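ping. complex inputs:
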Amino acid sequence: MRAIVKAVRQAAAAVSVAAAVVTVLRLRGRVVAPMQFGGWRRLTGSGLR
Amino acid sequence: MRVAVLGAGAVGARVARQLLASDSVDQVLLRDVSPEVLARTARSIGDRVVIEHHPFPTMLDADAVVVASPRGTQLAAVEQTITAGRPAVLVCDGLAETVAILKLDRAARDAGIPVLVGAGFAPGLSCVLVAHGMSWFDEVEEIHVYKMGAGGPACALVHHRALSRFSYDWRNDAWTRRPGGSGRELCWFPEPVGPRDCYRAALADPVLLHHAFPGVGRVTSRMAATRRDRLTAAMPMLTPTHAEGGTGAVRVELRGRRGSARETLVLGATERPAVGAAAVAATAVEWVLDGRVGVRGMAGLAEAVEPVGFLGELADRGLVAEIFEGDGVGV
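pong. complex structure:
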């Protein structure tokens, strides 16, 4: 019984540490969209090109 | 001419309004299960609308039928239109229901009527853009469709669920099943939407495009979503959706061969999805009434309409197609 409780505690601790690391990385990370080259142009004309 | 519009939601009400604004339709028969929605829509449109409350009469007295009712009700509505022998235009984006409706092809052919499946923003405009893009190439090997945004609350619910269902992509002569919410891909939509992360979802576009272009080796679709969308996709919608939805966009990417060169073509459009879907559906109804749709039975817009003329009429309604011309992209 004691071994099971110990395993559960260790698993909970591991999950907590992982969650903390992920949270720090998420908060520190920046979301930057890569540069886009070119642009959109409206299709016009009888052939819509 | 008299057109029946089943469903008076964000799309159905606009379809009715657009049809009456044109000279091709004299009267619209509007059906909805909600008396409040019917009354509000009828007040805003005018006296050329006839409303029918639930339970509806079995007879459908109209020259064409627009099915813009919520997911889960469209299959029965299509069966009713086929029984009545009336051509139909469907604004649908649920994958399972679209597949079930396509299976009614034999019945629709026997009735001698066209049933245009997926005549909204996506599928709908997306299919027309793909059909137009096919003319750029000698041979198309891949079609990829991306969409962003939802129309009314019923459409938002379909999108919410689509992220937690399996997506079906056509790859190498077989349907490939992948979990919704996987396969993140950053893609640029026309402005003002711009770059969005897109994920696999249970979308109907690949089914309709494979139906239209069975020779294309790869057909995929993705929809834009946030982390919260993916996290909550498996749960019920916890917050009520916006009645109208914001600005949406559709983007199609075709890869293939022209001459000896391999090329990529990107087409797109941006509009509020309910407005765009209504413009596409109303234009499709006018084409049906004018006899400009040559097909009989179930068909997506990609195989039912001539794309240049259709896109030209959509542009007259304010829904303008665009092409992406960028570094290494463009034919």
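The two ends of chain B are 42 Å apart (CA to CA).
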